[in-house]
Amino acid sequence: MTIESSIYVMTENDTDNNGSAVDIDGKTIQLLNLLNIYHFLTAKYRANFIQGFLHLSRANFQSEKLKFGLDTFDLRPYNACKVVNVGTSEEGIKYEIVDQLKSQVNKTDEPKNTTTTTIKQRIVKESTELSNRKVKASKQREEKNSFLDTIDDDDIQTATISQLRDPIYQFNPFMPPKELILSQDNFNKGLDNIIELINLQNRINALINELEKEELAKVSGH
């Protein structure tokens, strides 16, 4: 993602009597630019989540039988499709989202048609099993709560990468509602915005610390 903002360019006039660049002024301008980008991302993050919930509401309104919410989630253990890697940079800790579902699709060595057919068959089977449990909302809650009580850490740890699948297909294995797809897309973008905001916040904090140290050194005469 590219974010355009006004960039301050140092000129020959922006120097002290010794000819060295005025670092504090330059870093202050850089800080203001980062704060401007942070404000922009905050608005974008908010808009994505608002749109995500709006599309989810429309999907529920348009669906006569199946509703999309807590009562229809498949709570059986699956590996996370997205994980967050933690690394380091000059500004400090840096976070990065890794889409394991896409990685799994890219790394598969099986023929495309065979893989697609196998996935569809498995999704249909799992969706059928899940639909059979959706007799009444209250009964479903009891069954899911009872199931969750039987899950331990070993069950989750033994889940294999083959259990990675797009969660949207738990509602429809072949053609999920358009509004539900749009909702998922907005929430995915919102998640990306969250990681960008955290990384940007780390950059801002690191720059503030540098400015405070330089200002303190300037005051103390060092």
UniProtKB/TrEMBL annotation:
<dbReference type="GO" id="GO:1990871">
    <property type="term" value="C:Vma12-Vma22 assembly complex"/>
</dbReference>
<dbReference type="GO" id="GO:0051082">
    <property type="term" value="F:unfolded protein binding"/>
</dbReference>
<dbReference type="InterPro" id="IPR040357">
    <property type="entry name" value="Vma22/CCDC115"/>
</dbReference>
<dbReference type="Pfam" id="PF21730">
    <property type="entry name" value="Vma22_CCDC115"/>
</dbReference>
<protein>
    <recommendedName>
        <fullName>Vacuolar ATPase assembly protein VMA22</fullName>
    </recommendedName>
</protein>
<dbReference type="GO" id="GO:0070072">
    <property type="term" value="P:vacuolar proton-transporting V-type ATPase complex assembly"/>
</dbReference>
